[in-house]
Write a structure and sequence with these properties.
Order of helices and strands: EHEEEEEHEEEEEEEEEEHEEE
Structural class: mainly beta
Strand order of the largest sheet: 11-12-13-14-15
Shape: elongated
Number of helices: 3
Number of strands: 19
Distance between the termini: 173 Å
Radius of gyration: 54 Å
Amino acid sequence: MSLRIRRGTENQRQGVTFDLGEIAYTTDTQKLYVGDGISQGGRNVLAATAGAGLTWNPTTQTLEVSTSSFNFTTSDIIEGSHLYYTPQRAQDAAAALFTAGIHQNISFVYDDVEHRINVTAAAGTGSNSGIISVQSDLAPLLGGPLGLNTFSILGTGDINIAGNIASTNSKVKGTFSNDYMSINQSVISADSHPFTVVSSNSELASFVGIVDGVGGFPWINQRVSQGTASVPTTTTAGTRLGGTRVRAFVGSGDAKTCSATISSWDTTAILTDQRPASTFSIFTNGGSSILREFKFESTGTFVAPVIQPGTYTTPAARSAAIPTPIPGMIVYVADSDGFGNPKFEGYIGGAAPGWVLLNT
């Protein structure tokens, strides 16, 4: 025969105060309660088992595990095949990765006392080889662009590069002693500019030289040849050799020549002479398409489209402007005789006649 105790639903239980020791069972939640004669609904029989890491939750009528009540450490639990983490074991494992690696001329030794890895590198060749310093690599190659990271490359030696050197907002600084800076360009073209200075300064370039006081002084030289820069050939008579010119921006990216000078061998030049015959020309623009040339010839002749001597209003004005004339001077006096007659005058020296009329 079965023993049947008081039973009902959870809602029914909550409305009944059971006698002391009376047992009640909830048919819907399947939980067992004991009455104390005081508490409505009785007390769950599991509530008395709370403690030692178990906490009774009166709302859910369940026992909950309280992890804060357990003070277990790895010393209380057997490791088995899964080892616990310790700094020592991590350091040992990391050291093994280096010491067991494939490498040459580099040794790794783990210092178990100081907890560090000591590396010793020796010079060597071949793949997987170590070097003591960069200079030990006699043929280093970059795998990509070398970034300076705001630092500089310092040292003594040469830079030998096949290609272009591009620099932005930079300066080329240095001292050239007993040597020269050479720019080689073997192509002759009107559009070639092997050396260009771009500056907003009023002085584009400055050259400092020394004179010796007895005839020695610095030059700015243009050394020219025919052929190419690498295979030069002799120049020939009548050849234009070099010059200077001033060009100005006139809008739309165009620049036009304002004036120029040209040095040439004379057409009669004998290049074996110590000083072959030469000419020097100065060119200016006359407006429109007019070009004017002023030329010093090898004969000592000065050839110009127009020569205008100094002009003065009267002989007195001439003498005031030229207090110490030199024989050979020629001037133009607008009123040479006090009657408004213009004359060319030349100075032949001496107190008298001094200045003489060149035209009657």
